[in-house]
Amino acid sequence: MVMNLGWPAKASEEPLLQKPLYQANVHIDPVKKEVSGSIAIIFWPKDPKHAYLHLYPDVFTKRQDGMLWEELLGKEPGLGTYDSNKLTVDGKAVAGKKTGHILEIPLAAEGEPISETGPHKIELDFAMKLPHNDGRMSYDEHAIWLGNWLPILAVYDQGGWRLDAYEPVGDPFYSEVADYEVNVTFPAGYQWASTAPDKAAEVTAPSKGEKTARLRVKDVRDFALVVMDASYQSTESKAGDTVVRTWWRQGDDVQQAKQNHQAAVSSLAYFHQNLGAYPYTEYDVIRTGGAINGMEYPALVFLDGRHFLANAEYAIDTVVHETAHQWFYGLVGNDQLREAWLDEGFTEYATISFLTEQYPLHGAERVRRRLANGTFVPLYVKEHQRPWQALTEFPANQYYSDLVYSRTTSMLWLLRGAWGEERLYDVLRQYVATYRYQLVSGEQWKAFLTKAAGEDASAFLDYWMNLDMSQQEQAAAWLERQREKQQK
Ligand SMILES: [Zn+2]
Fold this sequence. Notes:
Elements: E1 21-29, E2 34-43, E3 50-54, H1 67-73, E4 81-89, E5 92-93, E6 97-99, E7 102-106, E8 120-129, E9 137-139, E10 143-146, E11 152-153, E12 155-157, E13 160-162, E14 178-187, E15 191-194, E16 202-204, E17 210-220, E18 225-228, E19 232-239, E20 242-249, H2 254-275, E21 282-288, E22 294-297, E23 300-304, H3 315-324, E24 333-334, H4 341-358, H5 360-375, H6 378-382, H7 397-419, H8 421-435, E25 439-440, H9 442-453, H10 458-465, H11 472-487
Parallel strand pairs: 1-14, 20-21, 21-23, 24-25
Antiparallel strand pairs: 1-2, 2-8, 3-7, 3-11, 4-5, 4-8, 6-7, 9-10, 10-18, 12-13, 14-17, 15-18, 16-17, 19-20, 22-23
The protein binds zinc ion.
Residues 321, 325, 344, 347 line the site of zinc ion.
């Protein structure tokens, strides 16, 4: 497809009603690896009796056993600590109840329902010593990377409260868009990058040798932060109105870092054009330690050090994939524990579409692998495995990769074959515009696809996403009719 020059109009700036606000004051000691602070969450209750917070750092204070945990955290992870106290609701002390990493917060005493007219405020203090592992929240000698570290409200959807345990497969997160006001204090010699527009942040010096960054950002699903020592440097360029910054450290391959940066800039511009306007003014690509590969957060992604070695084989592909997540996961949210295909599969389709156009050698190889792994799946049929199942059902990362990534991508790639790339992007752009800043379900995508196709898409989705082999012929016939209609 030929890209138009110029940028689409900005998305409408209609304020979301009843959007939570997180206000945090945090102190980080990069030498002791300690993070402590307080958070206030101003929100509209979904349930008159309770609210629930995910305290994800709590997961890494206990030993987790098994192959999948070892693949996520490494062979000998060091445990962290996590304490939370001084819990209040609207200024009154309450007793929370912790089950696993979930904190249940009573909003009202028995027989005394909370007022439903206005927002309420939860306040909580927390203190942690960081765990040492290969995952999303840890540290090494040059950086502290904090993913899924602040207390965050659980989602209440049509299935009720979603209070799932942390899973070692996939990205076990589900959250709603909110605003964040985070003040972070750390030693003056360190640098930082976060979900907020950091270049625009006000910085003050509360005491000698320390600085406080006032970080403000609206309409994000989470808030990630990386604190880096002086060995880090960044390069930046603009993609439309967004400043893209890529951060790497001394000892990394400069050539590879620049190539990663270029891929981030050009893919952000491409997705902005094809999937709808990117609303954030700054996008950070950050080299972390550990071995998470790549991990997406709003307006910021992590790439582990392997992506900054000379001629790193998959570095470009990973950068592009994490950038595509800014749309699928970031702008359009979903239950990543039950319907991961909605974020991973759509992200990977956008990735191979971009690569095919702008990095054809990478693109051709990646398309070939995705189709090979996603279309021939007799083993998974036999084992009743499918893309449209919860993370808890996947016995190994290979199953997750083949089904959630490759099979969903294959389905969309075949749809592109029938419709053409341009029409599929038109539909995806409409889909993103419809669910921008919201949560979408697989059923909603089915309805959306049905409408776009002008014909019930159930058989097509049942065959591809539920591996219902009884629908195989129907799915093929559906696709063929779509092809014929498009050619008319
Ligand atoms: Zn992904």
